[in-house]
Amino acid sequence: MSDPFRNTDLLADADARQALGRLVETCRRFADAVPEGEPAQAAALEHILEIAGTEVRGGTLRLAPAAALPGPVVRLYKAPLARGRLKLQLFPLARGEAHPPHAHHDLLSCQLVLSGAARMYEYSLLGRPDPASVEVREEGARTLAPGDGVFTLARRNNIHWQEGLADGTVLLNVNWQGCLGQAEAAPGRRYLDWENRRPGPAEGRLIVPERTVA
Ligand SMILES: [Fe+2]
Asked: Are 77 and 130 in contact (CB under 8 A)?
């Protein structure tokens, strides 16, 4: 079987590579027994973020100084799970650069700031008023420093977008695709037509068209 790790030369040193390996093992154990229900899933992902955040703040999990990332998404790890697959990747962001608003299908994920600073705008998925739109509730925006992170679940915080606040910002993205066992024709990330959002039925709610997937 080919090595599931890639681009680990972008990490600072052997300690950082070991920290990545520990995080992968923690993430795989989570997938072995994904808890039922969003409160338990949220608690488990918050715990993973706490572990990873401690490694980042303590300087163990860090990138090589001035590491030049070879693309907008850099894979660190990808391997199948008993159900679905686990992926860890890097998202570099320049100041003012943003990943556009998107929903996640049959996917749980964590995003953690490795360096720089980012602003995360989060929305929970309330439902689908029609097959081509989502109804969302605004959950507010958070400014994240290195070691800080957020997570997405099937409903809570399912929709988000992220913006770099400093040049050299790098996010670590961890995602478990297919582990919820939802029947999805197009799992993963699905972009929203944010320009055409409209007010929902109550304060803080929005109806947003979802772009169809080719
Ligand atoms: Fe995302």
From this structure: no
